[in-house]
Specification:
- This protein has 86 residues and is an all-alpha fold.
- It contains 4 helices and no strands.
- It is globular, with a radius of gyration of 13 Å.
- The protein starts with 24 loop residues before the first helix and ends in an 8-residue tail after the last helix.
- The relative contact order is 0.16.
């Protein structure tokens, strides 16, 4: 079956798996920065991407994780056990 341009093959997450297990490494990096309270501009600077791309990543995370706000994303990250202490 043909894929739309830019779509990747994805392996479905196992039943009962954390919603974060469906995220790419880049999405996890963006989520960690959102959880730190970084703005789209700060995320863009840290990841060497444009603000528009940072905003798109955050919007995609909100949709993919079915969250309504950046605060909800931060809570999910904080309770996931995936966060790292610097």
């Amino acid at each position: 079956m043909p894929r739309a341009p830019g779509q990747r093959n994805r392996v479905p997450a196992p039943v009962g798996a954390s919603p974060l297990s469906r995220l790419t490494a880049r999405e996890r990096a963006v989520l960690a920065l959102v959880a730190e309270g970084k703005s789209n501009k700060e995320i863009a600077q840290r990841l060497f991407i444009t603000r528009h791309t940072a905003k798109a990543h955050v919007s995609r995370l909100l949709h993919k994780l079915n969250k309504a706000s950046r605060t909800e994303l931060a809570v999910l990250w904080a309770t996931s056990g995936l966060r790292t202490e610097d």
